Amino acid sequence: MRTESQQERIMRLQSVVNAILLHEPANSFKNLIENNEELFKGFRLVYSTNNLDSEFSHSSLKEIEEHCPTLKKYFYGTGILFYSDEIYSATKRQGSIEIPIDYSLSLDSNAAERFRVWENGGSLDKEEGRFEGLVRFIKEGKEQGFNFDYSFFIIENLIDSMKPENHRPFNTIRALKRFDHLEYEKDSFNIRSPKFSETLEESGKRSIEALHAFHSSKEIKGFLNRRKGLYLILLKAVLLREQKNLELGKQLEMLVEYSLDALGAFAKTEIYFAWKLLKHGKDLRFFDPVSQLGKKSLHRIKGMAWDLFAVRYQETLASKSNIGDFYVPFFASFDNRFVELAQACPIRAVLIDDVDKRVITIHLDEYEFMVDLNESITTELNHRLQDPNEKVKRMSKKPTEDELNKRATELEKILESIINNSKHADAASCAGV
Questions:
Q1: How far apart are CA 152 and CA 149, in angstroms?
Q2: Which residues share a beta bridge with 60?
Q3: What are phi and psi of 60, to 5 degrees?
Q4: Which one, out of 154, 201, 256, 369, has a CA that is 20 to 30 A from the CA of 100?
């Protein structure tokens, strides 16, 4: 049998994405797989749905959220289904089977810092009940247990942790490290008087080691660059939105060109987020912070970029499960940010290619996005996007941190100019000019 080339595998992966996009969410997952059996070979798929097939291994997301309301699911549906070559073969031979799943819980900053307050003896006030529910859920777990992951918090606060006067990130990480050594017994645990088998000094030492490892890691620097790339696309979209004479099609075309020029890649997921802002932003609460430009807009755009990057970061973790065959992420949050994000950008599936180390997120409304995108780009630009050799070349070329910073400075200056001009116009209007 002839070996599949990298270009051919990339094209087949895209064909799998197209098959999922054209498959109605309410239809059978079994039909999706059996009608495209050759396409799916060699790939893994996590598929979210409200229509669980009993023939395939599945897990209830609704049940987990009901058990611990502080958890916010990553996928849109009430449950998830799984595909791999091995699972498919075993399912056909044996019927319904069980597979190991790596459930992982990440924290946003507000949830992480509640651990710091609690570990330090502070009051959680009205959040005490929800926090206790979260602690008990983490410790008691589901099936094989929940992997408690706070690497995203460290990445989000990595730059701030380098500032000598800012002790908050270190103290929070220390509290999270110490939580690993919480003495927990289901029946006797008291949330107001926790006991730890590790001293503050010991957990502090481990926190310093963790921060050092993150600061010196090339992979982590790569994550920071990816987040900056997302920030660039989001900031570019905000600026394009201010050009009232531009229709959506032209805005998307300019975003794709900017992505290729600034990032050396077609950043599909980032452009999808930008499309949601440009087309549906007025109807989605998640985008309210940038509905109007003002002096806090830059800060809000940066924060929104971190929220969106939380989704992108889960893609990476999805291909690195240490416990099970599949990775199912959740976020712990004490505000509605991630609920609003899930409603704005509902995730339908995650497609994993272990050979090329590629993970593709497919959103519930991605077909609508792809239609708008395909109608917006020129023939010449479309050729750049679809050429397999160009795709391979782009995969091997990434912009440096300095190049990304330079691009960011350019866009930030444009934003500042728009805000200043708007202030002057408002002042002139008030003065009756």
A1: 8
A2: 79
A3: -90, 120
A4: 154
CA-atom Rg of the chain in angstroms: 23
Q: pLDDT tens digit string along 34-43?
A: 999 999 999 9
Tokens of 163: 């500032």
3-state secondary structure 142-206: CCCCEEEECHHHHHHCCCHHHCCCCCHHHHHHHHHHHHCCECCCCCCCCCCCCCECCCHHHHHHH
Distances 272 to 28, 43, 117, 193 between C-alpha atoms, Å: 26, 23, 37, 46
In this prediction the pTM is 0.87
- Sheet of 347-353: strand order equals 58-60, 79-83, 44-49, 347-353, 358-363
Tokens describing residue 47:
């598929």
Q: Which residues pair with 273 in a beta bridge?
A: none
326-332 vs 146-149, strand pairing mode: unpaired
pLDDT in tens, 306-323: 999 988 888 777 666 554
Bridge partners (DSSP) listed for residue 329: 104
To 5 degrees, how large is the angle CA 316–CA 219–CA 216?
145
Type of residue at 187: D
